[in-house]
Amino acid sequence: MDGIYMDNAATSFPKPESVYVAVDNFNRYQGGNPGRGTHRQTIQAGSVLLDAREALARLFNVQDSARIAFTANVTESLNIGLKGWLRPGDHVITTSMEHNSVARPIFAMTSQGVEWTAVPCTEQGCLDPQLVEQAIKPNTRMICILHASNLTGTIMPIAEVGAIARRQGIVFMVDTAQTAGVLDLDVEKQCIDILAFTGHKGLYGPQGTGGIYLKPGLQIKPLKEGGTGSQSESLEQPECMPDRLESGTPNTPGIAGLLAGVEFILAVGRDNIRQHELAQTEALLEGLRAMDRIKVYGPEDSRQRVAVVPFNIEGMDCGEVSLRLEYEYGIVTRSGLHCTPLAHQTVGTLRQGACRLSPGYFSTEADINHVLQAVFRLAHQS
């Protein structure tokens, strides 16, 4: 692809070369359906899944990798967690910054008797953990929050909220779509009972990959039932993890790529990836804030956000900004509501949306300079 890619919050691009090689090698030379038979290819396919679980367990400090089940994406993982745990009469707490992958399932469940409180965040998308604690009711059964906003990049205080949930005996689920592979995630220290992740963003895997972690002892209703390759003599869905949540043939070529992506992170170092993206985010924020007619959203301090920088140009539709950046300057961005109307309502951009810049580990200083020059020219054209 020619040009400059600034849409890593939607999906990371490019991937490490090892990811492309892993997917191609599996499709060309391995094949096999994991857990479906005893021949060499199915055993090799099963090893891919096992190795990927182990690598993810290292990244998230999961003690038993069997507690990680693979899904198609973080949306499926969140639906499993929400619909598998909550029942009519239960109360769930979220923030006002949630993505539609959380907001829509919960909204649908409110018609079935689930009660929902979205704790308000500041205009910068920041959350006060005490407001979460104050929202707890006798029937509160889950607290579900995102780790970082896909609109403002705001990082949420998950360790503090997790501690509150643990003290109150409430299940704590975290949406890590924007943070897995970039920020520290430790299910033990952060008291995370359910962790939902996607493979195609900060983990550098292919699209169509994701997963969910369940704390040991936590049993939830599966979103679907079917063949697992285990206990096939029974019509009942297996109780053991990960089989309970993994019905049907998995995306094994994609998981092979996901494994390569996680291995890349472990080799490079998550902190090094974070520092690289932090420097780029700081450069974008400083450059944009120095320009006239530019409104930037989210925390002032770049350390309080992931590599996501939304902005608007005064008097110009965000869709036009995104379109012109691509066709006139070769810069790929995303504009609109980013599937998160609650966050836009919180920030004050529900009617206009925003143009979002999201650099990644493979973005360069030259890329950032080119982006700033292009935005400056758009903002100052008569």
Strand and helix layout:
Elements: E1 4-5, H1 17-30, H2 40-60, E2 68-71, H3 74-85, E3 91-95, H4 100-110, E4 115-119, H5 129-134, E5 140-146, H6 158-168, E6 171-175, E7 194-198, E8 210-214, H7 252-268, H8 270-289, E9 294-296, E10 309-313, H9 318-329, E11 331-332, E12 334-336, H10 341-347, E13 354-357, H11 365-380
Parallel strand pairs: 1-11, 3-4, 3-5, 5-6, 6-7
Antiparallel strand pairs: 2-8, 7-8, 9-10, 10-13, 12-13
Helix pairs in contact: 1-7, 2-7, 3-4, 8-11, 9-11
Structure description:
The protein is globular and about 70 Å long. The longest helix is centred in the first third of the chain and has 21 residues, at 40-60. The chain has helices at residues 17-30, 40-60, 74-85, 100-110, 129-134, 158-168, 252-268, 270-289, 318-329, 341-347, 365-380; strands at residues 4-5, 68-71, 91-95, 115-119, 140-146, 171-175, 194-198, 210-214, 294-296, 309-313, 331-332, 334-336, 354-357. It starts with a strand and ends with a helix. It is built from eleven helices and 13 strands. Strand 5 (140-146), helix 6 (158-168) and strand 6 form a beta-alpha-beta unit. Helix 1 (17-30) runs antiparallel to helix 7 (252-268) and helix 3 (74-85) packs parallel to helix 4. The protein has 382 residues and is of the alpha/beta class. The strands form three sheets. A seven-stranded mixed beta sheet has the order 2-8-7-6-5-3-4, with helices on both faces. A four-stranded antiparallel beta sheet has the order 9-10-13-12. The chain folds into two domains: 4-14 and 269-380, Alpha-Beta Complex (Aspartate Aminotransferase, domain 1); 17-268, Type I PLP-dependent aspartate aminotransferase-like (Major domain) (Aspartate Aminotransferase, domain 2, 3-Layer(aba) Sandwich), CATH 3.40.640.10. The mean pLDDT is 95.
